[in-house]
Amino acid sequence: MKAALFEQVHQMTKVDEVYECEICGNKVKVMESGDGTLVCCGQDMVKVTG
Questions:
Q1: Does the chain have fewer CB atoms within 10 Å around its N or its C terminus?
Q2: How are beta strands 18-20 and 46-49 bridged, if at all?
Q3: Number of domains making up the chain
Q4: What tens digit of pLDDT does each residue of 17-31 get?
Q5: For the chain, how far is it from start to end, CA to CA, in angstroms?
Q6: How far, CA to CA in Å, does 47 sit from each of 1, 2?
Q7: Pairing mode, if any, of strands 34-35 and 12-13?
Q8: CA distance 6 to 26
Q9: Which CATH number is 27's domain given?
Q10: Distance between CA 7 and CA 27 in Å, rounded?
Q11: Bigger pLDDT: 39 or 49?
């Protein structure tokens, strides 16, 4: 259960995922995985593929 809680709080991007900004429509494709969230126009970007 501890691992599941960690996954909910801790987000990690993965290679080839695509994220989009709901405000301006900017899209980002992940080239290297990493911790955290992608931010554009002051808010988290939304994963659209991956």
A1: N
A2: antiparallel
A3: 1
A4: 999 999 999 999 999
A5: 25
A6: 25, 24
A7: antiparallel
A8: 29
A9: 2.20.28.100
A10: 24
A11: 39
pLDDT of residue 50: 67
Residue 45 CA to residue 50 CA, distance in Å, equals 14
| C-alpha R_g of the chain | 12
Residue 45, both tokens: 């970007």
Report whether pLDDT(16) > 50.
yes
Distance CA 39, CA 36 (A): 10
d(CA 35, CA 6): 12
Residue 13: Cβ within 10 Å count: 20
Residue pair 20/26 in contact by the 8 Å Cβ criterion? yes
